[in-house]
Recover the amino acids of this structure.
């Protein structure tokens, strides 16, 4: 399938169908014990990683937890909240530390033979310059000084130039994948609840998370139980958040 045909497939998702899917998603806090089908989980993860992401470096990872013993250990880590009694929890992790392997991966997995020279140069030279902040951030510090001077004359990308910037960088793309994941489950007839109500220290221990991984949310997934949604939907008037120029 060529690129033009793929792009035109966007017509398949009508605005009405997309609106219906997005509107039907709610944060569900009570689930039945019905397990989530393995093939559905795989399909949803495949859709999650189709999310747009910075420089295609895909700075995310996912831990899929269905083992009852591990779920039982996670429940108190999630402040014993109802949503954490779901039959499936997916830990959505941002990975500011995987850019180096990802740069090599883009070259290695290039879909049409050898990558064009420009692409190869970007992933071998430009991306490492952008993302390598050095031990204790010394490279980032130097880059910030350099940017201050060069930036007086021309427009430049100012971030990421610190380890803190790298965390924001990875979280942005991973949050987009998390939204894809929620909508994908919704399309399969499952409900979700994103949770940041957890003890990060205990979570790291229970899931043996790599030190650099940032758990951005735990996603509870399952079929809705009784009184699954606590409150009616509430959003502020759109104009409160939007300015038009
Ligand atoms: C990053 C994030 C963290 C959240 N953490 C929790 C949580 O720990 N527990 C919970 O019950 N809901 C949690 N929620 C769900 C929100 O409360 C919910 O999305 C919001 O109230 C809007 O409701 P709606 O999703 O049904 O439209 C979280 C949502 C997000 C995006």
């Amino acid at each position: 399938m060529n690129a033009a045909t793929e792009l035109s497939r966007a017509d398949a998702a009508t605005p009405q169908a997309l609106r219906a899917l997005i509107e039907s998603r709610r944060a569900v806090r009570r689930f039945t014990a019905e397990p989530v089908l393995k093939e559905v989980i795989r399909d949803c993860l495949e859709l999650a990683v189709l999310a747009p992401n910075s420089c295609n470096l895909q700075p995310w990872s996912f831990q899929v937890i269905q083992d009852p013993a591990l779920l039982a250990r996670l429940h108190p880590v999630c402040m014993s909240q109802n949503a954490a009694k779901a039959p499936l929890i997916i830990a959505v992790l941002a990975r500011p530390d995987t850019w180096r392997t990802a740069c090599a991966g883009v070259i290695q997995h290039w879909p049409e033979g050898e990558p064009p020279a420009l692409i190869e140069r970007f992933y071998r030279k430009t991306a490492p310059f952008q993302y390598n902040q050095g031990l204790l951030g010394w490279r980032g510090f130097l880059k910030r000084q350099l940017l201050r001077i060069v930036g007086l004359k021309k427009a430049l990308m100012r971030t990421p130039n610190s380890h803190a910037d790298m965390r924001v960088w990875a979280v942005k793309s991973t949050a987009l994948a998390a939204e894809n994941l929620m909508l994908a489950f919704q399309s399969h007839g499952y409900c979700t609840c994103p949770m940041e109500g957890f003890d990060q220290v205990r979570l790291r221990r229970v899931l043996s998370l790599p030190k650099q991984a940032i758990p951005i949310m735990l996603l509870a997934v399952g079929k809705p139980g009784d009184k699954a949604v606590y409150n009616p939907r509430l959003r502020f008037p759109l104009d409160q958040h939007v300015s038009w120029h």
In short: The domain at 28-226 is CATH 3.40.109.10 (NADH Oxidase). The mean pLDDT is 95.
